[in-house]
Amino acid sequence: MKNLHQLFGTKLSFYKAYHPQTDGLAERMIQTLEEMVGRFFSYGLEFKDCDGFTHDWCTLLPELELAYKASIHASTNQTLAVLEKGRNTRLPQDSLRKDFVELYPTAYSFKLMLGKARKNAVRCMED
Predict the structure, then answer these.
(1) How far apart are CA 27 and CA 14, in angstroms?
(2) Which DSSP state fits 53?
(3) 70 contacts 79 by C-beta, under 8 angstroms
(4) How does pLDDT run across 68-78, given as a tens digit for each residue?
(5) Long-range contacts of 26-34 (CB under 8 A, 24+ apart)
(6) 74: which DSSP letter?
């Protein structure tokens, strides 16, 4: 392990829990996620799936995590996906096309829901 750290020019550091000097990265991530969840609350983003089930903020946490990992971070100028996996994450909108044919109603309603969520996200970023 020591040779691996020398090869990459890194240093393995252990830190105490709740130590203010070493807790900054976790605190920044938590602050960003709180802001993301807060934006969903401020616009009251709820959606119903094809079965009529209403989703709330708890069901959006995996999507928020995906958005966080797919966003470019100011400190590294990279996404977390690139840093973790060496490539960008494939996002749902990557597979959506304008010439989408309605084969499955569920997929089509998911596409509509994604479009609404994207418009809300753009509106949030503009505020």
Answers:
(1) 17
(2) P
(3) yes
(4) 888 888 877 88
(5) 29/68, 32/68, 33/64, 33/68
(6) T
